[in-house]
Every structure is written in C-alpha cells, then in structure tokens.
Design goal:
- The protein contains nine helices and two strands; from the N terminus they run ααααααββααα.
- By secondary structure, the protein is mostly helical.
- Helix 1 packs antiparallel against helix 4 and helix 4 packs parallel to helix 7.
C-alpha cells in the first residue's frame, strides 16, 4: 500500500505538472490562468511530500521487520484486515500531512502583473524574507529531517545485523540471537508460508553450531 501511495504521488507529478511546466520553454507567457498556476505548484509540493514521507515510513517498516521480526510475524498473523487498515491509516496520514504543507503554495502562487504573465511562487509583496523562509523550510522538512530519520533506522538495522552475525558461532546464551537471525532471513526472503521448512532450517542451523563447538 505504501508503494502504491508512492507511485500515485509520482504519477500526479508527471500528469498534472510536467505538461504545464513545459510551456515555460515553448510559450512566451503563462496561458492557463491563476487557478492552474496555484494547482500546479500545490501538486509539486504534494508529490514531493508524499514521496519523501513515504520513503521515511518504509525505512521504519523495514526496521521493524529486520530488528523485531517476531513482532512483525505476530502482526502478520493477527489478520490481514487489521494490517491493511493500519497501512491505509499511515498512507492517509502521509497524504494529509503533505497536503497541509503544500497549502502554502496555494496561497503564495500567483500570476505576475504586467503584459508578460508568469506563474511564480514568490510574491514580490512578500519580500525577500519569504524567499529565505521558503528555501530553508523546504530543505529542513523535505530533506534534512527525512534523511536523518532514514539514516537512523538503517544504522540501527546495520548494527543489529552486525551484532547478530558476531553472535552466531556461539551457543550458550546466543540461541535467541541465532533464532532471531534465522527468522529475519526468512522474513526478508518472503517465505512466510513455508513454516515447516523454516523450522527444519533453524534446527539444522542449531545442530551445525553444536558440531562446530564439539
């Protein structure tokens, strides 16, 4: 569902923005009126927000699957309807947040007065302060915070995988770590339906560890 949301956001950008933006290079001025000027800027920001926030949510979802695989398995067995509802709510929250942030473009975008009509999103009467605010705002909200969040989750995933790999050769108190890594491997490869094969593979892995110790 999150991937569908990401695809729809990109499709909106291609269908409703690219054709109008191309007129900048083919026509002397903006021929579509102020409504489409505002709508075009709104969709650009909406698509940007949906794409960035969805990628951030996907990193959090992958973190839960890899670092807490047993919790992910439990959620998958609770019911498809509840899991789907949770994903739909997350996607709806992402679209709502992106639309709310993009409303700024609806207010700011307008046509320039004069014989040469141009659609721009920096009103002259708002001054240079708004230009600086707009640039910094987009950098922080659409780049800095998401990239820090994504990097944080992937760093935690890398740390968990490195620590689990180091714990694999031992037996003792590392049985839980071996079981978690085995479960994670099957979740990543998508073998949820092969529970019997998973059990055999984990058992063989444990026997192999005992042979290494002896």
């Amino acid at each position: 569902m999150l991937l569908v949301s990401l695809a729809v956001g990109d499709l909106l950008l291609i269908v409703f923005t690219v054709p109008f933006r191309s007129t900048v290079y083919t026509l002397p001025d903006w021929p579509f009126g102020e409504v489409l000027c505002k709508l075009g800027e709104f969709i650009v920001s909406l698509s940007l927000g949906v794409s960035v926030f969805t990628l951030t949510a996907l990193s959090a979802e992958r973190y839960m699957v890899i670092v807490h695989p047993m919790s992910a398995v439990h959620r998958s067995t609770v019911g498809v309807s509840s899991s789907l509802l949770r994903t739909v709510l997350v996607a709806g929250w992402i679209w709502g947040l992106a639309a709310g942030l993009a409303c700024l473009e609806l207010v700011a975008a307008r046509l320039s007065p004069g014989p040469l009509v141009v659609c721009h999103h920096y009103p002259e009467e708002w001054g240079d302060a708004y230009v600086s605010f707009h640039v910094i705002f987009r950098f922080v909200v659409y780049f800095a915070l998401p990239i820090i969040t994504i990097a944080f989750f992937y760093a935690l995933m890398a740390r968990m995988l490195i620590v689990s790999t180091k714990q694999m050769p031992g037996e003792g108190g590392n049985g839980q770590a071996a079981k978690q890594v085995c479960t994670t491997r099957h979740i990543i490869t998508g073998h949820f339906r092969h529970e019997s094969s998973q059990a055999i593979d984990c058992t063989d892995n444990k026997n192999y560890q005992k042979e290494e110790i002896h």
